[in-house]
Amino acid sequence: MVEYCMLGGIFLNLKRTVYFILLIFSLVPLILFATFMIDQNNKRIEEVSQDALSSISSVHLLSISSFFETQQITLEMISGLDLVQEAVQKSLDGTLAWDDSARSYLTNVLAEQKAYHDYIETLTVVDRNYMIVASGVEYPNYEDATELSGINPEYLTGDFVVSDAYDRNYKSGTKRVVSAYQGIYTDGELVGYVIEEIPIAYFDRFRTESGLSEKETYHILDGNLSVITAGTCNDYLEEIHSLGDAQRNEFQKKWDAIDHTLHPSGFITFQTDGVDYITYYSVIPCTDWGMRITTDLTARQQSAQEFRTMLYIVCSVFAFVFIIASVFLARAVTAPIDYIVGVLKKVQDTQDYSLRLSMKSDNELGFLSEKVNDLLDYIEQENIADKKKQYYLALEAESDPLTGVKNKKALAASMQELLCDAEKTGVPIAIGFLDIDDFRDYNTHYGHQQGDRVIQFVARTLSEEVQGVVGRTGGDEFAFCIPNAADKESLSAVAQRILDKLNGSPNGAVPCSIGIVLAQGSSLSYTDMIQQADEAMYHTKENGKNGYYISVPSESIT
Q: What percentage of the chain has pLDDT greater than the value 90?
């Protein structure tokens, strides 16, 4: 009996040992395999997060850069005005104080520009001694430049640059603002600056329109680590980081270890209190600013955590069921993530933001797929909006700001292209000049605003009557080109209609002198035709003005 019990006990112990060994040999490979799969899933999710943050960061860098390019174009336009350069030079010479009319007109110009851009708080022209020449807002004393005398010299190189944030006292109270600077040059010498102040509250729109979730934070910090905008897409945060002290310290260690000269943009991953975070950082052009987007990776790894929890539960039951569950989860999780990464990789390679994930599921991967599609929708719309913005910027660069017709540079390019076409096809082509007679009288007797209205009226009349291209070459002079010009008689009819409309204005006649040259041949010289049109216009002026003269070189028309 004792022997039987001993044998039974040995058998039971051996059976237990075999079961234990079988369980170990079943579970250990399973656990190792599952651990490997979880690690791969985490890496995949991190790659997806990096791609998503990189894509949205690229869109926002492009959006911010486009905004600053628009500001640069505006400030360069103002700094290039002859009136601005003359006023700054008078300020340096000490004679501006005696020219109230010039200062008043320049002040109106700046005020109109400020009113056109409602996000601008002030728009000011100063000379290189920081003396205020004119401003779009009222200053109590134009000679008092104390508020500008402390400008950081690094922003006064003459190139376009945006400053760090600072507090500014206005009549309405103190505001936190940044300044955009553009140098004013005369004969290559830096003589002053155009300064534009923008409240930092304006930059909140880049955060609120970021498309980020409440688990992600968006920061723009200036060179002094002062907050330009910070928080989630809905909530503004006063602190530089939304993390706690431990998280902030862990982030700072990783941040200080980076050579930001060699790596102006990139990713930082760190972990605190068992939570994984990833931050994308990048510098913003034309500034000392930096952009940071931080997301909670642990929240995105929820599916992997659920996988781990289920693994432990099933292992306590039996190995076989656990292995089946592991294989099922591997197929249910890894393959969809591979699919998501593959689509994002294709988007990155082809720049085709119309691609979408077709995976439909109620789990976290389905939610991730939905959010990736939302992100792609947002990027696609931003891409379309940016292309439209680039189109309008290009159109603005080719247009005369006062009249809307082509400026001198764009007009010359269009004329040369039409002349090349006319040379190839052998059809006649005409180039004309128009000059407003005695234009100075308008500015002298009625003021520059009335003079501007006259110039706009002439530009509108030419655009309506000329079947070709029209541009303003400067001041009160215009040029136009008529391709496929039939003959001298048709050109006479066009010129007469222009004069009739200009002289029949209900607001008063606008006499003009027009000169036109009509040519045809195998060699059409842009320079020669421009010169001949100019001479034809002066022929009109010498013969009483307010008329037209058409020149037809004998060697050009057969």
A: 20
